[in-house]
């Protein structure tokens, strides 16, 4: 069967194609349109998926949308009614927004793709999350927990799943917590309060938390209380997100925590104000972790299962994931490479295949590389047109040159094979650098990422060596496969891994096995031979405000606009020639 | 140039707008977003063109636009420090939809180089004439005036290269392209104004409906909400039996 999964209209739209039970390709629309978190109907992503598989829309057996639009509309309308008359400003906006496009998904898909409406199916949003987490994980039986901000009514679900290779699969979500009670919205509210962008910058709150002490835990606990049945409820007096499209927190929230941070003010964690914000970030982080640990512990006791699959945007919180792994009683924790809404495209397609059509279960390849493949020849052509220093060499020589570059302090743009599906660069569209000095971290922040100094960079390490440098608990290496866990750097290595060690002594590690990304693995080994430490700083190949690059030309334009010294794509290596663009400007002027 | 003449004519209005500290901050933030969005679109143009020279020029232009975005935001940020802390305003900022619309909603990836250059030239000329007026009415705020000086310096380069390159890639028809770009811009302005008016009307109608039709249903919904138990809700197994329905 050929099933296309689609997620769209909230944030981070995506398309994924499943043929005969296996994913063939998946890509986020932002990687095609170059608009970060593009939520538009993912036509470019769909076209690419169909092209990749050599299919016409007519060939599809089903097109699955990742949520039930009318159920979502019911939630929006009901919330507006419940908040009457405070919702009078929000109501026209919400109605225009929903009725303008979002509830007509069946018609949009049908008209855009030309498929008959009987082929269009809908999965519940958290079913899609659950399927993305469970049906892609190498486990046969697992508990499932999904948590995000909001979509339909559910904001958190708990259940379990079972897979039998070649046989039937099941996903049973047993219970859920309804909007507006939402861990994702709690975290997003603090994201907004701390002056960051909602649905985009939540990871900054996690980074900032490392600089603070959780001195406001009691205050945060006033906002979220546990219910007797083990769930939680938000005290809505402190929030406005359910009644107001402009602001997510109420005046009472501000009375409790003090004035919010202006998004335009820099954060200095040395000042009293900076310490206050870091303390608030640390407090909400701790409460989130405590709540998730409690709930997953209860789920483990209830199901008696050894594995947990975690889905939804909250699963991007690597610090919380590491605590769940350590304290919940589960032996293994699986978080997919795209646990957020983009991943729902794949989840919805797999759900339809396994559960709706009852097709036999198949192991999904355990990697995140489902996107377009980079063409090194493209890079060579473009760079030569610009008179750049281009070399095309064999694999071994390229790896050796790259290791030499890294040893001499150069920063590498690294493009290899198929693009990652999900928000993390896991070795195919990465910026790589030596991980040893703080100066390197500051240089990348200053010359490449143009971002706040408090944000850490992640390391990548061969899985066999991870335990030497990082305190990995049992199951930690698995969690770190897609960079989903934050673990302590061993104290004796912190000074030699200063560029990737966060202020609290931790790092968001990626453990790499050879099969997943063989070229990067070889580069790590080669670098290890030279430096004695087979660890590299690995951050996504993009600039601030832009999505991760897809094609060679996008990598090249990124390379030209920032402090990356060398760009590698396939077998092509380009070395930057001085301030190339500025010279050109002078020539033309 | 009609646009320039109109800007001149509206100088008193611009003076009134730019006199107010807070309005100035909002304008600068909006310019920051517009320039950043424009930079993003130019970057896309650089990535899709097959002309190596244009690729380099678009990249330079994109970098300029992104720098302008930073300059505008930095100036706004400095001015915000002088504003009294107002929770509702500063808190709302991160929820604001981006004010910029990049290159006037141009579908950069599918436009030809000729169309792109003509459009850029017209847009840059118009921006330069408007920024010149802004610069003049900002005599009382030298710091903001300097930002416009800086931006205007780049705009001159942008106007020149777009015209030169348009003449290169479309030697026969470059004037026609420019006129077409002007008319397209005018049409886009009309569409924006029309949709803004439609939006206001729609909001007004929905607001009236909200207060006339909604109250009874709101009362029922609120009564239902009061009865609702907090905590877990169980999921009935049959709820998800059909994937054909949307609710």
Condensed summary:
By secondary structure, chain A is of the alpha/beta class.
Spans of chain A with pLDDT under 50 lasting ≥5 residues? none
Termini separation of chain A comes to 58 Å
Molecular shape of chain B: extended
Low-confidence stretches of chain B: 85-101
Coarse morphology of chain A: globular
Helix/strand order of chain B: HHHHHHHHHE
Strand proportion of chain A, as a percent range, falls in: 15-25%
Going by helix content, strand content and strand pairing, the class of chain A is alpha/beta
User: What gap, in angstroms, lies between the N and C termini of chain B?
Assistant: 56 Å
Oligomer type: heterodimer
The largest inter-chain interface, given as chain pair and residues per side, is: A-B, 85 and 61 residues
Q: Please state the average pLDDT score of chain A.
A: 95
Strand content of chain B: under 5%
Radius of gyration of chain B from the CA trace? 24 Å
> How many distinct beta strands of chain A?
24
Task: Report strand order across the widest sheet of chain A.
Answer: 14-24-23-15-17-22-18-21
Instruction: Note the main sheet of chain A.
Output: 8 strands, mixed
Rg of chain A computed from alpha carbons, rounded to a whole number of angstroms: 23 Å
Walk me through this protein's architecture.
- The complex is a heterodimer of chains A (589) and B (247).
- By secondary structure, chain A is an alpha/beta fold.
- In chain A, α12 links the parallel β11 (307-311) and β12.
- The termini of chain A are far apart.
- The model of chain A has no long low-confidence stretch (mean pLDDT 95).
- Chain B is built from nine helices and one strand.
- Chain B has helices spanning 2-9, 11-19, 21-48, 52-82, 87-92, 113-137, 142-169, 174-212, 214-227; one strand at 233-234.
- In chain B, α1 (2-9) runs parallel beside α6.
- The model of chain B is unreliable at 85-101 (pLDDT under 50).
- The chains are: A alpha/beta (589), B mainly alpha (247).
- At the A-B interface, α3, α4, β8, α20 and α21 of A face α3, α4, α5, α7 and α8 of B.
């Amino acid at each position: 069967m050929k099933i296309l999964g689609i997620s769209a209209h909230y944030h981070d739209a995506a398309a994924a194609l499943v043929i005969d039970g296996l994913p063939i390709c998946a890509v986020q629309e932002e990687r095609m349109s170059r608009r970060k978190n593009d939520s538009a109907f993912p036509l470019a992503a769909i076209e690419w998926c169909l092209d990749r598989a050599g299919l016409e829309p007519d060939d599809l057996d089903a097109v699955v949308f990742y949520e039930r639009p009318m159920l979502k509309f019911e939630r929006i309308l009901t919330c507006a009614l419940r908040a009457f008359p405070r919702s009078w400003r929000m109501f026209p906006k919400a109605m225009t927004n929903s009725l303008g496009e979002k509830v007509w998904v069946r018609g949009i898909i049908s008209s855009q793709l030309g498929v008959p409406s009987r082929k269009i199916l809908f999965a519940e949003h958290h079913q899609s999350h659950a399927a993305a987490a469970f049906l892609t994980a190498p486990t046969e039986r697992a508990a499932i927990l999904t948590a995000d901000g909001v979509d339909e009514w559910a904001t958190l679900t708990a259940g379990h799943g079972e897979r039998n290779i070649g046989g039937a699969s099941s996903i049973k979500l047993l219970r859920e917590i309804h909007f507006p009670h939402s861990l994702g919205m709690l975290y997003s509210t603090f994201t907004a309060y701390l002056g960051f962008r909602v649905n985009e910058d939540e990871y900054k709150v996690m980074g900032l938390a490392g600089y603070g002490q959780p001195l406001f835990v009691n205050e945060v606990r006033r906002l979220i209380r546990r219910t007797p049945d083990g769930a939680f409820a938000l005290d809505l007096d402190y929030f406005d997100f359910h009644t107001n499209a402009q602001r997510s927190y109420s005046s009472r929230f501000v009375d409790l925590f003090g004035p919010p941070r202006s998004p335009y003010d820099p954060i200095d964690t040395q000042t009293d104000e900076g310490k206050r914000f870091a303390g608030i970030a640390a407090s909400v982080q701790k409460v989130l972790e405590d709540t998730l640990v409690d709930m997953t512990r209860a789920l483990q006791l209830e199901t008696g299962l050894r594995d947990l699959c975690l889905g939804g945007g909250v699963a991007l919180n690597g610090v919380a994931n590491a605590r769940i792994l350590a304290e919940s009683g589960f032996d293994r924790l699986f978080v997919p490479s795209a646990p957020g809404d983009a991943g729902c495209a794949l989840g919805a397609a797999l759900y339809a295949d396994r559960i709706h059509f009852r097709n036999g279960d198949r192991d999904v390849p355990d990697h995140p590389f489902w996107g377009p493949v980079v063409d090194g020849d493209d890079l060579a052509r473009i760079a030569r047109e610009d008179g750049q220093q281009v070399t095309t060499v064999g694999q071994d020589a390229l790896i050796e040159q790259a290791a030499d570059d890294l040893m001499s302090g150069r920063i590498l743009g690294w493009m290899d094979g198929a693009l990652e599906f999900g928000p993390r660069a896991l070795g195919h569209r990465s910026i790589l650098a030596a991980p040893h000095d703080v100066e390197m971290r500051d240089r990348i922040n200053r010359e490449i990422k143009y971002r706040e100094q408090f944000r850490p960079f992640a390391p990548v390490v061969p899985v066999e060596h991870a335990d030497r440098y990082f305190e990995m608990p049992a199951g930690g290496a698995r969690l770190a496969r897609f960079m989903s866990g934050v673990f302590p750097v061993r104290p004796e290595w912190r000074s030699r891994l200063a560029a990737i060690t966060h202020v609290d002594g931790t790092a968001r590690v990626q453990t790499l096995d050879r099969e997943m990304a063989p070229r990067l693995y070889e580069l790590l080994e080669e670098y290890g031979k030279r430096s004695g430490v087979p660890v590299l700083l690995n951050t996504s190949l993009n600039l601030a405000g832009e999505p991760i690059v897809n094609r060679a030309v996008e990598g090249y334009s990124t390379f030209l606009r920032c402090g990356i010294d060398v760009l590698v794509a396939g077998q092509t290596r380009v070395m930057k020639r001085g301030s190339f663009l500025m010279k050109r400007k002078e020539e033309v002027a | 140039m009609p646009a320039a003449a109109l800007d001149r004519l509206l100088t008193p209005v611009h003076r009134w707008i730019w006199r107010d500290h807070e309005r100035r901050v909002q304008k600068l933030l909006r310019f920051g977003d517009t320039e950043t969005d424009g930079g993003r679109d130019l970057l896309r143009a650089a990535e899709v063109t097959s002309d190596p020279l244009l690729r380099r020029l678009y990249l330079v232009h994109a970098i300029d636009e992104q720098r302008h975005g930073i300059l505008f935001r930095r100036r706004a940020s400095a001015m915000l420090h002088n504003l009294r802390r107002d929770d509702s305003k500063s808190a709302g900022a991160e929820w604001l939809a981006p004010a910029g619309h990049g290159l006037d909603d141009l579908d950069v990836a599918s436009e030809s180089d000729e169309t792109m250059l003509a459009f850029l030239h017209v847009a840059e000329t118009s921006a330069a004439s408007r920024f010149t007026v802004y610069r003049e009415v900002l005599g009382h705020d030298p710091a903001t005036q300097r930002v416009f000086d800086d931006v205007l310096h780049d705009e001159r380069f942008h106007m020149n290269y777009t015209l030169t390159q348009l003449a290169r890639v479309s030697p026969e028809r470059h004037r026609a392209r420019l006129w077409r770009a002007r008319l397209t811009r005018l049409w886009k302005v009309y569409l924006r104004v029309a949709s803004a008016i439609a939006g206001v009307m729609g909001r007004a109608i929905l607001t009236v409906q909200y207060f006339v039709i909604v109250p009874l249903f709101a009362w029922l919904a609120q009564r239902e909400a009061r009865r609702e138990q907090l905590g877990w809700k169980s999921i009935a197994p049959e709820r998800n039996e059909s994937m054909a329905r949307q609710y």
